[in-house]
Amino acid sequence: MKHGCDFPGPQGARKEECMLDLEKLYSTTARATRKSAIRELLKLADKPEVISFAGGWPSPDLFPVDTISDLMVKVLKERGRKVLHYSKAEGEVGLKEELIRLMAKDGVTAEAENILVLTGSQQGLDMLPKAFVDRGDVVFVETPTYVGAIQAFDNYGTHMVPVETDDNGMDAAALEKSIAEWKQRGQADRLKMVYLIPDFQNPSGITMTEERRRGVLEVAARHGLLVVDDAPYRDLRFEGEPVPSLYALDKKQSVISLYTFSKTLVPGLRVAWAVGPRQLIDKLTTLKQSVDLCSSALSQHVVADYLAGGCMERYLPMFNADYRHKRDIMLDAMDKYLPKLEGLKWTRPEGGLFIWVTLPEKMDAEKLFHAAVRENVAFVLGSAFHPSGGLKNCFRLNFSFAAPDRIHEGVSRLGRALTKFAQESA
Amino acid sequence: MKHGCDFPGPQGARKEECMLDLEKLYSTTARATRKSAIRELLKLADKPEVISFAGGWPSPDLFPVDTISDLMVKVLKERGRKVLHYSKAEGEVGLKEELIRLMAKDGVTAEAENILVLTGSQQGLDMLPKAFVDRGDVVFVETPTYVGAIQAFDNYGTHMVPVETDDNGMDAAALEKSIAEWKQRGQADRLKMVYLIPDFQNPSGITMTEERRRGVLEVAARHGLLVVDDAPYRDLRFEGEPVPSLYALDKKQSVISLYTFSKTLVPGLRVAWAVGPRQLIDKLTTLKQSVDLCSSALSQHVVADYLAGGCMERYLPMFNADYRHKRDIMLDAMDKYLPKLEGLKWTRPEGGLFIWVTLPEKMDAEKLFHAAVRENVAFVLGSAFHPSGGLKNCFRLNFSFAAPDRIHEGVSRLGRALTKFAQESA
Which residues does chain A have with pLDDT short of 70? Predict the structure, then answer.
């Protein structure tokens, strides 16, 4: 059944080049968007013999596949025609009720109107600049910050300003100083928000102290800026006392938090949510209608039933026990195999998925990356986590994905690579 | 477990107003975004006694719920840890292979690199202006055009230019004339694309003739414009010969087509796809990474297995038989119950979900809407389908969602409302 379609070549394939001048037609956004250099670099490491600490991935061994399968069957049997239909942009009522209960355990008080269900929290990172950023507007970020946020904010022409950040999180005084400088330059109207990953940060693994949280909230509120609390790892705490969430500490309704089930359940259901001031949630809901109409009702009902059935309490401790074990193996192996170099250090996170390594200042992590891949081990360069490519002597290690014996072996390879690299650089 | 969280009021709820000046912080996009007047209006009709012809919805009675449930179980059993993990931004290889086979039956030749899987085709309507539109850029559209496209394009500040469209589709000569006018005004660089829904158009139900398709393709290619072929209803043909798709007719690789399973299977899996020039698909894939990372691998595998198992051939004819029956009931009832008014006319689509009604020129469809709701029947105003709110004497009827007896009854109510309304207006 071919209709006037005479172009297929000998292989039946559409081999011609596009006759449009796409570069001319593209928007400023599309012209500026480049393939992630990191992704291209990591293709070098995409070989079975390479042990990769690069992906920010949960461990699929932990996925409660049978439970999800049973819930799928139950939901489809009970509510199949409803959950396979279009849902509402704001999300399913039943899921919101469960989210309210879930967040209450963490000191967060919210109502249904404070919640917008998202198709993964990356969708929130795309919608926030859509809602707040005109080209050139300013968003203050931690140093380092999440690569996916950099990409999403970049697409709206955001000026991302890195603020001094140490082992206690973003420095409120440094934020104050940076805001003051922008205001002195007459750019007050350009300042929009402060973007934070306060718990087991991606990529650093650092958790912001309560004092710093209060400090940053106070500075942001005083200057009328929205605070974005990106919290995908918050429930992945292995030890130590939880620090109150930014959302719970906030007294000015100036925080929007992004949560997801991608790390505490599975990424494949694509269920996440935002909680924030109802006027803002209302605005984002209107925007979501034209972004993807709605998130899958089926996925939302499966997650709601998972929560209602107490599965989170049953499975999440297994996630945390496994990740804690893997973190310990990685840290032990790092202590054992990484050479003792002046200035070499790494974080010791109390949860999450990542360890952040800082090399001696003049060492180039990209060169080390190539040496590491020759030893069949991979990581992500620190420069991916800086809006203008700084942090060239840093890199991120993920400890959640690889199996324990692979973590041990991978770190020993990394130790060999770094030892050789340090000798050659000396 | 509450941490320094002292604000909950007596009901434990977060009742305070947001202290931020959100209107000041919002982007140009967010400030311009208003709640859809149509959605607000339709809330008036959200009562059980109202028969609604408003939603653009498939009939949930047709959903192959058991088949989907069985496929979910099978996919989760065989590939659970893979499909519940993150997928690739471009989509799952297995689904792409099935899509290539599916499209080949319609004369479309494509390779994997021509395809980007989408989380619903609305995502494509959000990503296309992201990729091509700077504020003020021009997109030519049919009159009427799809409301969801208007909203998505509006969010990027698109100047949508309605082109004269009749029962044969967009008029290529009128497009040529409009392009020439913009070029004369020195706006050549502003012209980006032509957006079409050539098959059983939403909202008009009209199918573009082959001659018009060739004509518009020729004009667009000559002026270097991208053609967007939004084709959600293409496979919902009840009768008559298929017209070759724009993608199949295109010889210049200047067409991108959007397809979806929301109308031919179920909306709830949120699986759709774009097919187009590989350079463009590559660019959109990069953008999709920051929009939502990836579409659900689980949904993609279920759809792939559905296609591989021949389920589309089994179930789609049932969809079309049902919708044909409902269309006939609606058209018969319209012939019977709508008053004979000078200038009153409606389309008789060969497929799809919609009938488009044009009232006598001076009649206001919004006033009729209120009269209709008093008779407990609802529709969508024509003005929703025009970028600047024209077509005030038109409205859209959906025939796929309501049950046959409700369609008959609803049209008789509409007849009463219109008869009274015409008498009062006379």
Answer: 1-16
Specify the pLDDT at position A425: 84
Rounded to a whole number of angstroms, the distance from the CA of B197 to the nearest CA of chain A is 17
- Residues B72-92 have a mean pLDDT of 97
What CATH number corresponds to the domain at position A162?
3.40.640.10
Residues of chain A positioned with their CB less than 8 A from the CB of B17? 253, 277, 279
CB contact (8 A) between residue B18 and residue A277: yes
Same domain (yes/no): A325, A278: no
**Whether the complex's predicted ipTM surpasses the cut of 0.85:** yes
Asked if A106 and B280 come within 8 Å (Cβ–Cβ), the reply is no
What's the number of domains chain B is made of?
Answer: 2
Q: Do A16 and B224 touch (CB under 8 A)?
A: no
**Does B154 share its domain with B302?**
yes
By Cβ distance, the residue of B119, B120, B131 closest to A30 is B131
State the DSSP code for A351: B
Q: Which range marks the domain in which residue B378 is found?
A: 35-57+315-425
Query: Which of the pair, B43 or B297, is modelled with greater confidence?
Result: B297
One domain, residues B71 and B197: yes
CB-CB contact of A368 with A353 (8 Å) = no
Whether residue B264 is predicted with pLDDT greater than 70 in this model: the reply is yes
B9 DSSP 8-state letter: -
Confidence of residue B39 (pLDDT cuts 50, 70, 90): confident
* Backbone conformation region of residue B11, classed left if phi is above 0, alpha if psi is from -120 to 50, else beta: alpha
Q: Counting one residue from A and one from B, how many pairs have CB atoms under 8 Å apart? A: 346
CA dist A254 and B21 (Å) reads 10
Q: Which residue of A has its CA nearest to B225?
A: A20
Contact at CB, A131 and B83, closer than 8 angstroms: no
pLDDT classification of B16: cutoffs 50, 70, 90: low
Closest CB to B253 among A19, A58, A278: A19
- Chain B residues close to A295, C-beta within 8 Å: 270
Nearest to B396 by CA among B353, B362, B367: B353
Contact B68 A86 (CB under 8 A): no
CATH classification of the domain holding B398 = 3.90.1150.10
Looking at residue B2, its pLDDT comes to 33
Identify the pLDDT of residue B423: 94
B301, B289: one domain:
yes
CB contact under 8 A, B291 and A266: no
Distance (Å, whole) CA A405 – CA A407: 5
Tokens standing for A2? 């071919």
Last residue of a domain, one of A297, A312, A327: A312
Quote the minimal CA–CA distance from A202 to chain B in Å: 16
Please give the angle made by the CA atoms of A252, A258 and A264, to the nearest 5 degrees. 135
Instruction: Tell me the angle at which helices A278-292 and B147-154 cross, rounded to the nearest 10 degrees.
Output: 120
Does A270 contact B295 at a Cβ distance shorter than 8 Å? yes
Whether residue A25 is contained in a domain is answered as no
**pLDDT-derived band of residue B6, with 50, 70 and 90 as boundaries?**
very low
